[in-house]
Structure formats: C-alpha cells, structure tokens
From TrEMBL, chain A:
This is Autoinducer 2 import system permease protein LsrD. Part of the ABC transporter complex LsrABCD involved in autoinducer 2 (AI-2) import. Probably responsible for the translocation of the substrate across the membrane. The chain crosses the membrane at residues 26-47, 106-126, 133-151, 171-193, 224-246, 252-273, 303-323. The keyword Cell membrane applies.
UniProtKB/TrEMBL annotation, chain B:
Belongs to the bacterial solute-binding protein 2 family. This is Rhamnose ABC transporter substrate-binding protein. Its main location: periplasm. Pfam families: Peripla_BP_4. Keywords: Signal. The gene is rhaS. It is found in: Periplasm. Residues 32-288 form the Periplasmic binding protein domain. CDD domains: PBP1_ABC_rhamnose (cd20000). The keyword Signal applies.
Length: 331, 334
C-alpha cells in the first residue's frame, strides 16, 4: 500500500456508506458461520437435512415481514402492528372458512385484510400526519382486539388440506414452500431497494424527508406504499402461519413485532432510518433461526435466547455510535 | 469471500466427523421430554419434580424438562421441532393450544416418537392419549366427601357457591355432586348461588348465604375465586369453626384460610403426581409395554392405573386433598 491509495479514500460520501455496509454484512456472515459451526459441534442432530429444514420454520414467516419492515424503517417510519395484522387476517380467513370458502378464497381474504390494515396505517400516518410509532401501537391493540371480539376463547379449525400446503408443504425434498416463498420475496425486495429508483427514493426520504420533498419526491405516497407492502407481507405471513398451525386463535403470532424489528436492526438497518440493506436482514433472520434452533437442540431454556438477542441488539445499536464518538474524539 | 468459503467447508467437514462419533455411542436411555406451557411456573416445576421421581424409579430414563418462555403455541412448536430433531423417545406435553400443535405433533408421531398430552390436552389426532388430572365424577364426589367429613354429628345444611350459571365445568361438577348426595344422608344441600368468578360478587353471595341460613355448616365452592371469597366472608362474619369452607382452590391462595381454620380442607390436582404419572405412561407407551387404544389400562406406577375412553383420554385420580398437614409444602409451589 502506498501513500496515494491511503489518501484517496474519503472523498465520496457513498463510498464510505457502501464500505461500511459491506463490512457489516461480512461480519454477519462470519457470525452465521460461527453459530453454524458451534451448533454442528455441540449437537449430533444439527447437521441433518430434515432437522435444518424444520429449523427454517422458526424464522421464515417473520423474515417475510422483515423484508418490508426494512424498507419502512429505512424510510424513517415503523409498523408495530404487524403481528396484530396476522391475528386479524387469520381470524378473517377463519370466518371465511365458516362461510364455506375454499383455498383460493382463503388466500385472497388473507391478502386483502393485510392490504386493508396496511392502508389504514398508511392513511393515519401520511394522510393525518400522525407519528407512525404511536399510530401502529394503537392499531396493534385495535386489530388484535377485533380478533379477540370475534373469537373470544374459541378457535377456528378445519382448514382444507390444500390450504395446509402453504405452511406444511414441500416444493422439493426438504425445501419447504415457505422457504422458497421467503427467498422469492427477499429477491423482489432486494431488487426493489437496491436497483430501482423507488429504492433510492426510500433512502432519500429516510436521510432527509424535507430535502427529498423539495427534490420532487412524493414522500407521502412513497410512505403509503411502504405501509401497504408491510400490510401485504403480514397478510402473506398470516396465510403461512395459519396453514402451518392448521388453526386460528386470537393470540396467534403474539409478540412477533419485536422479533421482526430485531431482525431488521440486527441486519444493519439504522433504527433512525436512511441506511441498511436487504442482504443484511436476510442474514440476521438466518442467524436468529440458527441460534434458536441450536439452543433448542441443547435444551437451553428460551429465556437464555432472549438474553442473547437483547445483548446482541444493544451491541449492534451501541457499537457504531460508540465507534463514531471515539473517532470524533481522536480527530 | 474465499476465506469464508474455506471456513464453511472446514466446519462442515469437522461437524460431519463429530456426528459420526456422537451417533456411534448407543443410546440405552429412554429419553422423555416433558414439555410445559412455559418455564418458570411453580405448578410445572412441581410436575418436573414428579417426572424426576418417576425417572429415578425406572432407572434408564432421562427427562428433558423444557418449554417456551411465554405461553404461546408458536413457542411450543419451536421447542417440539427441536425435540423431534433430537429424536427423543417420547414427548409429554401440556399444550398452550388444543389445535395449533396438532400438525407438529403428527409429524413427531410419523417419525416414531410417542406423543401424549397431560394437564391441558391436545386434539385426539395430535396425540396417542391424553391424561386428565381428574374427572368430573371424581371432582364432584370429592367435594361432597370433604364437606361431609367435617360436618357435626347428625349432619347439617350445606350450600354451593359456584362460578357462573353458564360455566360448563362447574355445572358438570355440581351435577356430579348431586348424583352422589344420596350416599351422604348427613349432607343437606339447601341452595346453589353464583358469584360469576368475581371476587367481590362471590364475597357478597357468601355473605348472603351466611345470613339466609343461620344453621349453615359448610360452603362448597368448586372455583378458586369463590373458595377464597367464601373463606374471607366466613372469617369476617366471625363464623370460623362453625361454617367450613371447602371445594377447589389453589394452595398458595388458601394457605392463610387453612391456618385460620376457615377451611379445614380443599382439593385440587397434585402437580407432582401429574408429572410422575405422565412420565410413567410415556415410558410404558414408548417401550411398547402398553398401547394407547380405547379401553386400554395403562400403569402409572404408584399413582395407579388409567383406563382410556373412546377418545383415548383418561383421568389420573381423584383430586388431591390439602389440609393443615401438607399446605406448607404446597403453598410455595402453586
């Protein structure tokens, strides 16, 4: 390395961001490999195709939502009602089932309810200008509350076998339908965020909404679309989860919103908006799935997993800020 | 990236080697997983104690006591998936959801794992058999028996304080109580009142009973809310020793009233016996010493024998009686 290359580094803003992102994702790959090796060494049951396939069900549904949530958080908003949307969409599918709906109608109902809930959130945030964190805490109670009113302590069961395939079916050998669907969704969102002008718009809004507005970006409309997407993904997750459980209860997917946000933040998306990417979130989802499964194989109580994720989150959010402060001091 | 790839390859290779080594040593032990609604609940810790007791008695049994952090079906499914992966011999589960666990448990059975439910059952297609802590009949009988035991010579008036008139469980138990009344001529059932499982309403209903029936000798409350409220009302009315409160309650909530004498005895299932019995059944089914089919009789060791009905369900035993002699031990458990 000579002097010229050393001094040529910090002249472009974008270059710094991409290099930072690259290093973050490399770190995630290293963590994933590390977890994989530890699991493989500590349990004789880990490296089994069927077992690994079972383990993917621990994260696929949450990770689908995390894809849309990543874009939403990059744009500076958040949706905490995703798990409640699952509950409402699943309940609506159960009601449709009582009226004799077949598999295509059930899927349609799930998608529609997801979209409607997303539209409602989007309208409250962009139409009325309310802060998304407050709005979605409210709709979180609202959506789940409706599910509780409809179901009480009852459950909807008796979904048709062709519907169960969405949550229990395999496309080829150990490759489940859910895993394939997740991969497809991740690909779509990866392209959308990183290779389209819509994706650049999302970053622009997250970094500086006013600046974006004066550059001709339709900030409100973009955010509305992002809420729609998050709602739609929650609807898809509701279809998969309902099919996997074969039943609907109002407590379905309880507490998932936090796990989804955890995946997104762990994946390197700044909670303040403006930065992050899809590959990181995908890696974070896989890491969380592997760690949960590994702890499960070792029969480690679930609370240890919670502690682990909590520490990881604090480190992930805290380390870059600490790093920057140190650099400012030394500069 | 090449370093990463190299790492991956090495990892896979080492892991493959370890697997071969680990699977080589034969498994003599029968591994039974006791899956509970959530970890950190006294009731289930006590069930685990019973399971350990059964394991010690059987000798070649390893108990895996596990469960999710909070009482969700999704969490339990993750736990059960990892148990399937470990290829345990049996899973005995107290389910957070009757229906949601069925697909996962079916998968477990497909892979040759014995699956039973206990305490909180799973729908019939998701398990080989279900162990209920007790039965309506046994609960009804026990309530009347406890009331009769502490009546004065020559019998006396007894009233029932129930939850609400629409609660299926309580109504079934009261119907069973009425069935056995002819066997207890000293018990003179005067009325049934409803406190709706609300502490204040139950308390007022109990007060009403004390005033309306001056010769009342016992109150049977087959609800954990009602029994505490009734005991409090008897204490506040200064009738301790005169009116005995009994029924179904939780040791932790009733300890004070047993000490004061407002309640001579009450009943509820014993979690230690429940964990013990579930383990015994799981062992017998997993080792093919018994088959879960309608009419089958399966041994539960010291607890006795369970007989399965047409839904492959059975009742463990009559409810366990708690009184001054054992309340101190159980009040810290649940």
């Amino acid at each position: 390395m000579n002097d010229a290359t050393q001094r040529a580094v910090p002249d472009r803003l974008e270059g710094r961001w991409t290099s930072y992102l690259k290093s973050w994702e490399t770190l995630l790959v290293a963590v994933a490999v590390f977890v994989f090796v530890i699991n493989a060494l500590s349990s004789p049951y880990f490296l089994n195709a069927w077992n690994l396939s079972d383990a993917t069900f621990n994260f696929t549904e949450k990770a689908m939502i995390a894809m849309a949530m990543a874009l939403l958080i990059i744009s500076g908003e958040i949706d905490l009602s995703v798990a409640a949307i699952i509950a409402l969409a699943s309940t609506a599918m159960g009601v449709a089932l009582q009226y004799g709906a077949g598999t295509p109608e059930l899927v349609l109902v799930g998608l529609l309810v997801g979209l409607l809930c997303g539209a409602f959130n989007g309208w409250l945030v962009t139409g009325l200008g309310l802060p998304s964190i407050v709005v979605t805490i409210g709709t979180m109670s609202l959506f789940r509350g409706i599910a509780y009113i409809i179901l009480g302590d009852q459950a909807f069961t008796g979904y048709p076998p062709s519907f169960a395939w969405f949550g229990q079916g395999y496309v080829w050998w150990v490759i489940s339908f859910e895993l394939v669907l997740f991969a497809a969704i991740a690909l779509v969102f990866g392209i959308l965020l990183h290779w389209t002008s819509f994706g650049r718009t999302v970053y622009a809004i997250g970094n500086n909404p006013t600046g974006a507005l004066f550059s001709g970006v339709r900030v409100g409309r973009t955010k509305f679309i992002l809420f729609l997407m998050t709602g739609l993904m929650s609807g898809i997750a509701a279809i998969c989860l309902t099919a996997r459980l074969g039943s609907t209860r109002p407590s379905i997917a309880f507490g998932w919103e936090l796990e989804v946000v955890t995946m997104v933040v762990l994946g390197g998306v700044s909670i303040l908006g403006g930065s992050g990417g899809i590959p990181g979130v995908v890696l974070a989802a896989i890491i969380m799935g592997l760690v949960t499964f590994g702890f499960g194989l070792a029969n480690v109580p679930g609370i240890v997993m919670s502690i682990f994720v909590g520490l990881l989150l604090i480190t992930v959010i805290g380390a870059p800020m600490l790093w920057q402060r140190l650099r400012e001091r030394s500069a | 990236m090449s370093i990463v790839r190299k790492l991956l390859v090495t990892a896979a290779a080492t892991a493959a080697l370890t697997i071969g080594a680990a699977q080589a040593h034969a498994q003599d032990n029968v591994r039974i997983a006791l899956v509970v609604k959530a970890l950190g609940i006294g009731f289930f810790e006590a069930a685990n104690e019973g399971a350990q007791e059964a394991a010690e008695e059987l000798g070649n049994v390893e108990i895996i006591y596990t469960g999710p952090t909070d009482t969700t079906a999704e969490g339990q499914i993750e736990v059960i998936n990892s148990l399937i992966a470990q290829n345990v011999d049996a899973i005995a589960v107290s389910a957070n959801d009757t229906d949601a666990l069925v697909p996962t448990l079916k998968k477990a059975m497909d892979r040759g794992i014995t699956v039973i439910s206990w305490d909180s059952g799973v729908a019939p297609e998701g398990r080989e058999m279900n162990l209920n802590p007790s039965s309506n009949q046994l609960i009804g009988e026990m309530c009347v028996k406890m009331a009769a035991e502490h009546l004065p010579e020559g019998g006396g008036e007894v009233a029932i304080l129930s939850a609400s008139a629409t609660h299926t469980n309580q109504n079934n138990w009261i119907a069973e109580m009425k069935k056995v009344l002819p066997e207890y001529p000293e018990v003179n059932l005067v009325t049934t009142v409803y406190g709706d499982d609300l502490a204040d309403k139950s308390y007022r209903e109990a007060q009403g009973l004390i005033q309306s029936y001056p010769d009342l000798k016992a109150i049977i409350a087959p609800t954990s809310v009602g029994i505490v409220a009734a005991a409090q009302a008897v204490t506040d009315a200064g009738k301790v020793g005169e009116i005995n409160v009994t029924g179904l309650g939780l040791p932790s909530e009733m300890a004070g009233h047993v000490e004061s004498g407002a309640s001579k005895s009450f009943a509820i299932w014993n979690p230690i016996d429940l964990g013990y019995a579930a383990t015994m059944i799981a062992y017998n089914l997993a080792t093919d010493q018994a088959t879960a089919e309608p009419g089958a009789e399966i041994s539960m060791g010291r607890v006795g024998t369970v007989t399965l009905d047409e839904n492959r369900e059975g009742a463990m035993a009559e409810p366990f009686v708690y009184d001054a002699s054992n309340i101190d031990k159980f009040k810290d458990i649940f």
